[in-house]
């Protein structure tokens, strides 16, 4: 089930609005006329229905709000005292759009004194030092020891999805083209869009290759403990719960003593910072995050003074004296299977080919040295390798047995809890 079903929320808010007895029939008629031409995403539609109610309930004939400047100022002063700066700004934008339509496309003179305010006052309480760097993201991903969790962390840090957008991705939403990931958001707050990603591609491709079902309609992020395989039936998987993802990321962060905010919205802000630091054109950066250029520049991705200096140096090709220059992300592409690998990878984890001529030469010399050794030495080495392989298999089997026992214990606990509730 989606974290936020925008279409269902919009229908619910619309029905509630037209059933509200505090809103006059006159205003409901005006609202229906407006909605004929109000063509926006379900997310914006739900926001409109939620915020426009106060205006329609306050003015029995909403046309009065076009001319009564003093009453409009009192009305907005009341809203300003009740809500946060960000919520107040949303009320202004929604009401201004409706009243402008009602005034034949011209901004009413009654709104002359109503100001949204500075962007800085509406930002969430995130500071420049709260933004996560790519190196910290890689450190967090490696500490997870989990292919899927590493992909979750780095994909969100790279792309900065809204939580519901990220949670609802399916396997078929991701395509790899020319070492870039193209991720389709099919039902976002601002509608559908395609997000092009570069930084997270090695981790994401690794998870795509390891995905348990690879069925297009299955969720991209899978609750591994929920997998079921019944005889004669395809494997069934369940979507990884959003709260479970956030909780797991928090535990990993505590393990490596990383204290920055790590919910999905702070990571969205960090993603915007990465795009700004890479000097990605603002139109592309705003589009991949589902915002206007103005909102992207003014609201998301906190930059410190040092960050701004680094951006200037990077733009003009100057060497930076800062100990932390602008981060650049480079990848290898395997010549055999076309898997995209991180820069530090010396061999492809999928097909086993080396990633560079230097690694290939080292492997060649090692193989030749092995061939030149005596048959007895090779036999001893083969015996040793077999023993190590058997030891690895035994450890793996032991881990599987432990996992099965833990799963059985979890199922027993769930049964006991269920039985307790029924009693």
Structure description:
This protein is mainly alpha-helical and 423 residues long. Helix content is 56%, strand content 6%. It is built from 17 helices and five strands. The protein has helices spanning 6-19, 25-36, 42-58, 69-82, 85-102, 119-122, 134-144, 147-159, 163-167, 201-210, 242-255, 264-277, 282-288, 293-299, 305-315, 357-372, 375-422, and strands at 174-177, 180-188, 191-197, 331-333, 340-342. The strands form two sheets. Strands 1-2-3 form a three-stranded antiparallel beta sheet. It has a two-stranded antiparallel ribbon with strand order 4-5. A hairpin with a 2-residue loop joins β2 (180-188) and β3. α1 (6-19) packs parallel to α3 and α13 crosses α14 (293-299). The longest helix is centred in the last third of the chain and has 48 residues, at 375-422. Mean pLDDT is 83; it is low at 119-123.
